[in-house]
Write a structure and sequence with these properties.
Strand content: 25-35%
Protein name: Olfactomedin-like domain-containing protein
CATH topology of the largest domain: Neuraminidase
GO cellular component, one term: extracellular space
Bound molecules: 2-acetamido-2-deoxy-beta-D-glucopyranose
Subcellular location: Secreted
Helix content: 25-40%
Distance between the termini: 54 Å
Number of helices: 7
Shape: elongated
CATH class of the largest domain: Mainly Beta
Keywords: Secreted, Signal
InterPro entries: Olfac-like_dom, Olfactomedin-like_domain
């Protein structure tokens, strides 16, 4: 396994010059800056498969070997037609273009792989022609055949790298770069006051402060969640968690002892849900060293105690299995934690799909109180609790989400509001608040995204 590429992109570094990182820097695995402020640190993980410099070099080597070999073979022949010269020129051209890949990734991306393959087929024909002319089996020519075959394989591999990784990463980088530039703006403005709920509610959501692909390095794992234990137990003070899959089913959770371990994808433990205990909906959280999630069959709320590995379940007879959020199916139970404790948000048939915020008593794992809001769940992107207030979001455009509604369970007061924030990708399945750092955590279609919040002063 090649070393993970962790690129720590400091905003001070992010000028237009960083539109593309030189291959050498990718290889070293670290891009950091010593100068400038550190207000806004953003991390990006790249898939394990680095830019295949060694393969390009190998291909260059083969190309020049081929060229030499063909020249030798041609010199052996008494006569040859001009077609061979054309082939030789093409071969030279190919060498130059392969060399270009190495020096300029932009050109590399533009490289026409189909053309490369056609040219390789022409070489094959040429070698075959040479062999016929010589009218003898030649180990040199047999080896040429093998080399051409190998080169075709390499070209195919390079193409996979291009399509699957490099191009995508490059586009993501450009997107990221744009967003990071804006990220620094107003970081000073977000000063958390942990535990203090003497405020008038959320007034601003920052630009995304972290954007990173999930620990599976798989953008296809669009259904999942990530975050930090919202009431950590001793010994796990900054425990992070992650789980995802390619469908809304929930099978497993990974736990990380710190933020650094999370971004290094180095979990200290992993819990696979036993058969029959699987979940769905992806609106789980970790609170007090326990995972709270929606079990599928039978439908109920479940708790996985990470200390004891014991599962506890509660039927939710009132919670409807009809209404889900905008972006994902089966989101019936949405767990949330704030300064007041643990909550679950769901809708009921009785409330005609309006969201009900229910406070959970952690000891008994039972609903202790509930409030019916006026947020109609099928129009809501996601919802979360902060300081006893339920906030509901709705889709704006592709890159924007709006907190449009709040319900204060302390006063019964509801508010129409309009606080916009940016999404990295159009849809998301898990959005929740964490009272330990007053941040919002979003699982944004395969990516970890987080935001700082600003609350209004009373
Ligand atoms: C990257 O930077 C960190 C922090 O300066 C350092 O500890 C680490 O060894 C570096 N890794 C590489 C691959 O240079
Ligand atoms: C090729 O070799 C075969 C015998 O090995 C011979 O009969 C034939 O005439 C040769 N053809 C040419 C074109 O040299
Ligand atoms: C072609 O590839 C095979 C398998 O990867 C390898 O064993 C062989 O040495 C290669 N041949 C040449 C001429 O590079
Ligand atoms: C919040 O306000 C109340 C009443 O004004 C006050 O007693 C309390 O100390 C305040 N809490 C904080 C954390 O400032
Ligand atoms: C988890 O289990 C431990 C050990 O049995 C217990 O002390 C703790 O209270 C449990 N936590 C939760 C959240 O149920």
């Amino acid at each position: 396994m090649s070393p993970m590429l962790l690129l720590l992109l400091l905003l001070s570094l992010l000028g237009p010059a960083l539109a593309w990182l030189p291959v050498e820097d990718w290889e070293s695995g670290n891009v950091t800056s010593s100068g400038g402020g550190l207000e806004c640190l953003c991390s990006v993980f790249l898939p394990d498969s680095n830019f295949p410099v060694n393969r390009v070099q190998h291909m260059q080597q083969i190309t020049s070997d081929l060229k030499r070999e063909v020249e030798i073979q041609i010199n052996k022949m008494v006569s040859y037609d001009t077609k061979l010269e054309v082939y030789l020129e093409k071969l030279m051209d190919l060498t130059v273009r392969v060399a270009m890949m190495d020096s300029s990734p932009d050109d590399y991306i533009k490289l026409d792989f189909e053309l490369l393959r056609i040219e390789l087929r022409e070489f094959e024909a040429l070698v075959s022609q040479l062999r016929d002319s010589l009218n003898a089996s030649s180990p040199a020519l047999d080896s040429l055949f093998t080399e051409i075959h190998n080169m075709t394989l390499i070209v195919n591999q390079l193409e996979t790298f291009d399509k699957k990784n490099l191009e995508v990463i490059r586009i993501e980088f450009l997107k990221l770069q744009r967003k990071l530039k804006e990220c620094q703006e107003g970081q000073e403005y977000f000063k958390p006051d942990i535990g203090n709920c003497n405020n008038t509610g959320i007034v601003t959501v920052s630009k995304p402060t972290l954007i990173q692909i999930n620990a599976h390095l798989n953008a296809g794992y669009q259904y999942g969640g990530w975050g930090k234990d919202s009431k950590p137990v001793r010994g796990h003070e900054s425990m992070y968690w992650y789980g995802a899959y390619s469908s809304p089913s929930v099978f497993e959770f990974y736990l990380y002892s710190s933020y650094d371990k999370l971004i290094q994808r180095s979990s200290f433990t992993h819990h696979g849900l036993p058969q029959g205990y699987e979940g769905s909906g992806n609106n789980y959280i970790v609170h007090g060293n326990a995972v709270y999630f929606q079990a599928s069959n039978p439908f109920r709320m479940s708790k996985l105690n990470l200390t004891s590995s014991v599962y506890t379940h509660r039927q939710m007879t009132k919670a409807s299995e009809t209404y889900t959020y905008v972006y994902s199916p089966k989101q019936y139970l949405d767990f949330s934690a704030d300064e007041k404790g643990l909550w679950v948000l769901y809708s009921t048939e009785e409330a005609n799909g309006k969201i009900v915020a229910a406070k959970i008593d952690e000891k008994s794992f039972a609903v202790e109180d509930e409030w019916t809001t006026n947020a109609f769940k099928p129009l809501v992107g996601n919802a979360f609790m902060a300081c006893g207030v339920m906030y509901a979001t709705r889709p704006g455009d592709l890159n924007t989400e709006e907190i449009y509604y709040s319900y204060d369970t302390r006063t019964g007061e509801e508010k129409q509001m309009s606080v916009y924030f940016q999404k990295f990708q159009d849809s998301f399945v898990n959005l929740h608040y964490n009272p330990t750092d007053q941040k919002l955590y979003m699982y944004n279609k395969g990516y970890y995204v987080s935001y700082n919040l600003r609350f209004g002063e009373e």
